[in-house]
Amino acid sequence: MTLHPMIAALRKHKAGVVLIALQIALTLAIVCNAVFIIGQRVQRVNRPTGLDESNLMLVTQQWVGAPSGDQPGDVDKLDSLQQADLAALRNMPDVASVVPINSLPLLNSSWNGSAALKPGTDLRGGNARTTYYFGDEHMLKTLGVKLVAGRAFTAADVQHRGFRDQGEPPIAIVTQALADKLFPQGAVGKVMYLDGSGTPTTIIGVVQRLQVPGTGSWTNGFVWNATLEPVRLNANFSRYAIRTKPGRLQAVMKAVTPVLYGVNPMRVLDDDSVKSFADIRAEAYRADVGMAVLMGVVCLILIGVTAAGIVGLTSFWVGQRHRQIGVRRALGARKVDILHYFQTENLLIAGIGAVIGVLLAIGLNLWLMHHYEMDRLPVLYVIAGVAAVLVLGQAAVFAPARRASNVPPVVATRSV
Amino acid sequence: MFGYYLQLAWRSLGRNRVLTTLMVLALALGIGACITTLTVLRLLSGDPLPGRSAQLYYPQVDPYPKDGYVPGQSKPQENLTWVDANNLFEAHRAPRQALVALGSAKIQPHDAGGRPFFGDAVMATAEFLPMVGAPFRYGSAWSADDDTAGARVVVIADFLNQKLFGGANSVGRTVRLNGNDFRVVGVLGHFSPQPRFYAINIGRSYGDGDGVFLPLRAARATEMAPTNISCWAAGDIEHLETAPCMWLGLWVELPDAAAVANYQRFLDGYVREQVAQGRFHRTDTALPDLMQWLRNEQVVPDDARLQAGLAFGFLLICVTNTIGLLLAKCLRRSREIGVRRALGATRGAIFGQFMVEAAIVGLAGGLLGLVFAEAGLWGIRHQPAEYASLARLDLSMFAFTFVVALASALVAGLLPAWRACVVAPAPQLKSS
């Protein structure tokens, strides 16, 4: 089949051709970028935190009328309040283990600093940024993080200090990512200096993976860099991560508030205070999931609208060329030739649309990169997008083209 | 004549129901998506204090050290240190001015069984509430003397008054905040500027108003800590009044351009003086008004703007689609047009007829789009976002929906109507 008569025919329908091509181009540009955004969000949401997330929950509470931490002896008073809470929580029948902790991955409340190989390197000159998790000897077990080298904390390692007191611990555990950055030849037993201090901190263990609490783009440079310190922080508030026995999460979540009020009623414990890790995850990624769903729905509707547009215009053309089709059939064209004619015609228009669409998609991507936090659109997405619109065009044109191929040759003999 | 066009259009649309439904549906989806995202965008980028925002300015300076300074790129800091805030405040170069910082209060109910709970607290100076036009139900704001004396007085929000005192006039009674008694001097009526312009760099830009408003010095004396502290050097954040930390905002009321220019001169002079004294190393200042400050802080989330952009792209495709379908429809009726032209209809009449048809599609699309927009906003209200409950279609957006719908449909109808009216009658008649 030669393209010449087809192009000549399309010249008669310039407006229609331009409209379909334009629609396909716009659809390709928007859908390509939208799918790319969806992909990025999904990737972000699916990255594992390093925790064993099931049966894990967090309690955040504040004492009322507790010492401020400024007076001598305040820290010990605060510590005894915390110890009382811990004892009560560990006594609960469905609780497997509990750790007092300053934050959890995805909680968006973090304490960050830097780790350096030399003492006295200031904040900005550190060798790696890191987040800090402070907890006692139950930390690894409660969080479910995997120790890959060295040892875990023991009760003898654990110190306690005021929330605002400066001071670096003699030992710490780091994540594999941070260990590789600082000591590619193995980190256990090596010495680092935290936050520009002159006090050495010896790495006693390495955990496989643990994400930072922040989920904003500002953490992109150090998402997997965490330092675990064997320190119970004492302040007028506290957080407890609780690992429940399998399947007992809901029961513990219900029971924990009365237990803590039983220990000491002078505290703030509201609806937001008790959260399962699933809640924390959902909250952290709510915007990402919402955006992905919205983009997905819009893409589907867009594709539907474009397909409907192609069906509509092609049907009209088939109706308009009823007679010509009859003439071609009478002159010996087979049904399949008519079918192919409309299919090729659509391929041609969709191809033009796709070429414009690729340019638009790249332009849109560049614009988005300039105005928003966005990466470069991978070529694979563009190729997949082009293939998708061509298939979409073929699928949409099939029904009208079939109808055209069923036009009987006798139509040629009738005056319309 | 118009009635006749309506009748013709109605018949023509009825003749090809599938195509008509498709056009209306596509247009409605595009319009629904646009109105939903625009409503959210308008909500997020709205004026928190209509009528007052143009007179409120936010002075900014930069106490950072010299290193890291890039001329033309480094921006003045978001907040002020205690020292700078007080120096600027004490100079009294504006008719009204107020220092403000956000904090959090543990509120203890008086009844024995009540559990303590958290409330957002605003630490401010006396003129803050009158300056932003907060309405009082009972009592009034505290005085400048209360500020200097560090008086333990408080203004509470209506919802807190409801919760603590059952909505009664609570002026003169006490509220226990962070373990200290504060005497209520005023109860606000509904006061909830959106976005909460005085609290935007801490991620709580929208949503319910603040519970308690109390004098800055008294709040600090009871160790209420500001929510947003940023320090450029190691310092003791227990003693924020001397630490190299920024945590205060200063709002000044400047009634006209001359006052703004005066204040800008004063601010520049202040910074030069500080540089001369060796306290400052950077001379950049800024004095944005309220709306400019919101734009600088990019208070509208990127996702909301991206969604609105997506919705407009979507509408563009829907309009293209409608053009195509209308074109197909009207070209199919070439013969009918030929007959009408032969019987004396002018080109203008044919053009008008097809535009009326497009307008009907637009109105139907707008009506259905309104339903989609309401459904979309309903969905957003059921999201747990902080601004969710505010997402409602107001009267102007309601009207705007129809303007957008009609405009899109008429734009879509232009090309088909033009093509219809240039149809030459003779060939159409001959071929039959």
TrEMBL record, chain A:
Q: Which InterPro entries match?
A: ABC3_permease_C, MacB_PCD, Macrolide_Exporter_MacB
Sorted keywords for this record are:
Cell membrane, Membrane, Transmembrane, Transmembrane helix
**Coarse class of the protein's main subcellular location:** membrane
* A single GO cellular-component term on record: plasma membrane
Locate the ABC3 transporter permease C-terminal domain: which residues?
297-409
Signal peptide segment: none
Q: Where in the cell is it found?
A: Cell membrane
Record membrane topology = Multi-pass membrane protein
**UniProt keyword annotation of Transcription regulation present:** no
A Pfam family annotated for this chain is FtsX
Record flagged with keyword Transport: no
Q: What residue stretches are annotated with the MacB-like periplasmic core domain? A: 34-257
| Transmembrane segments annotated in the record for this chain | 291-319, 347-367, 379-399
GO MF, one term, reads: transmembrane transporter activity
Superkingdom in the source lineage: Bacteria
What family does this belong to? Belongs to the ABC-4 integral membrane protein family.
This protein is called Putative ABC transport system permease protein
TrEMBL record, chain B:
A single Gene Ontology CC annotation of this entry is:
plasma membrane
- A GO molecular function held by the record: transmembrane transporter activity
Show the taxonomic lineage: Bacteria, Pseudomonadati, Pseudomonadota, Gammaproteobacteria, Lysobacterales
Entry keywords, A to Z? Cell membrane, Membrane, Transmembrane, Transmembrane helix
User: What is the organism field in this record?
Assistant: Frateuria terrea
Instruction: Give TM segment ranges.
Output: 21-44, 308-328, 349-373, 393-415
Is Acyltransferase among this UniProt entry's keywords? Answer: no
Taxonomic superkingdom: Bacteria
Chain segments annotated as coiled-coil in the UniProt record: none
* Major location category of this protein: membrane
**Domain spans labelled ABC3 transporter permease C-terminal:** 310-418
Q: Where in the cell is it found?
A: Cell membrane
**Pfam families of this UniProt entry?**
FtsX, MacB_PCD
Query: What is the membrane topology noted in the UniProt record heading this document?
Result: Multi-pass membrane protein
Question: Can you say what this protein is called?
Answer: Putative ABC transport system permease protein
Q: Please indicate if the UniProt record lists rRNA-binding as a keyword.
A: no
Residue ranges of every copy of the MacB-like periplasmic core domain listed in the record: 20-262
| PANTHER family linked to this entry | ABC-TYPE MACROLIDE FAMILY EXPORT SYSTEM PERMEASE COMPONENT 2 (PTHR30572:SF18), MEMBRANE COMPONENT OF TRANSPORTER-RELATED (PTHR30572)
